[in-house]
Amino acid sequence: HISPHLVDIRERLQINGRLIPMNRFIRLIGEVKPAVESMKNSRVGYPSYFEILVASTFLYFAKEKVDWAVVEVGLGGRLDATNVLSPKLAVITNIGLDHTEVLGKTIEKVALEKAGIIKPKVPVVTGVTRRALKVIEKVAKEKNAPLIKVDTQSVEKALKSDVFNNIKLPIDIFRSDSLGFAYSNKLLALAAAKTLGIPLGRRQITKTFGSTFPGRFEEIEDGVILDGAHNVDKVRALINFVKNSKIQTPKLKIILVVAFKKDKKWKEMVDLLVKNLPVSKVIATKFYAVTDMGKHQAVEPKEIADYVSSIKYKVLSIKAINN
User: Fold this and answer.
1) Which of 20, 144, 171, 231 could pair covalently with 98 via S-S, beta carbons 3.0-4.6 A apart?
2) What is the DSSP letter of 117?
3) Is residue 294 within 8 Å of 51, Cβ to Cβ?
4) Nearest Cα to 204, choosing from 183, 188, 189?
């Protein structure tokens, strides 16, 4: 289970990398509909769009009797719809300031919300550091949950640690990610599998790590990169990807096509992109979506274009597109 989806809503519930067949998905939604309708006059009212999809996913996994379900939290953790599960393992990857209007405006508050997925005596794998790690450590201790800390700053050090028992893997499968999120997440995925006792051979690991996740520095055509970076930390990772990727050349000029949600620190993200990459043109656009937070949650293209024009760094061209 992942969220959000990039192209097809069925990305949210897939088994072995295969999207649920559309006719099966439609039937599944029909199966949960009576439960949704029964909540109309309840104290909490109708479940949200996200909650309905989470319930559908859990029903699908149960019907298919999956051996393992990997369930990504939607927002935060403590109050997230996915947190009704009793997991075999909790994984907390990294913590940054995002969704601060809901999760809190400090790293410690966000970390506490993330730590809400920690269950009594259930192991926790994490790559968080510093202030956030102190919060995770405190909650894990309170719940008597074994804490497996992974040093995601260095592949060499991590693979030599007790977590991996000196696992022998070609460093190249990590180097291809430069220093981005995928770099650390691969280490965390390995640590999670080992903690659960899932046997993984070298060939299987290499094959899996050789694939890319749609919408994360995805080259959809030669020189055309699609990335769903939607907060400051992810934009920094994107910039690092570009600077260390094969597309980087001395004469490289980048055309940015950008759209932002209203609740994001989009000005800071624009600053980072325009000032740290050889940008020659910015095309500001918008998306149309209906979410639990309402309709059309995008920043107006003209507002983005006006801001780009106002910052000190000059790009060659700015364009706003409304459709």
Assistant:
1) 231
2) G
3) no
4) 189
Residue 254 host element (H or E): strand 254-258
Q: Name the DSSP letter for residue 21.
A: P
Contact (Cβ atoms closer than 8 angstroms) between residue 232 and residue 97: yes
Which residues does 174 contact at the CB level (< 8 Å), separation at least 6? 155, 183, 186, 187, 209
Q: For residues 270 and 218, give the distance between their C-alpha atoms in angstroms, rounded to a whole number.
A: 20
- Span 164-168, mean pLDDT? 67
Whether the link from the prior residue into 4 is cis, omega within 30° of 0, is: yes
Which amino acid is located at 260 in the chain? F
Nearest in space to 139 (alpha carbons), one of 97, 78, 98, 94: 78
Please, what is the Cα angle at 149 between 148 and 152, to 5 degrees?
135
Burial class, 141, CB count within 10 angstroms (exposed 0-12 / middle 13-18 / buried 19+):
exposed
The DSSP letter of residue 48 is P
Beta carbons of 90 and 122 less than 8 angstroms apart: yes
Q: How many residues are given for the chain?
A: 323
In this structure, the strands spanning 254-258 and 279-284 are: parallel
The number of beta carbons lying within 10 Å of the beta carbon of residue 133 is 17
H or E segment to which residue 61 belongs: helix 49-64
pLDDT over 80 (residue 22): yes
Residues 6+ away with beta carbon under 8 Å from 252: 278
Q: For 205-253, how does the pLDDT look when each residue is reduced to its tens digit (9 = 90+)?
A: 777 776 666 777 788 888 888 888 888 888 988 888 788 776 666 778 8
Indicate whether 180 pLDDT > 50.
no
Strand partners, 254: 279
User: Using one digit for the tens of pLDDT, what is the confidence trace for 92-109?
Assistant: 987 765 555 555 568 888
Classify 59 as helix, strand or coil: helix
124-126 and 147-149 as β-strands: parallel, antiparallel, unpaired? parallel
> At 306, phi and psi to the nearest 5?
-65, -40
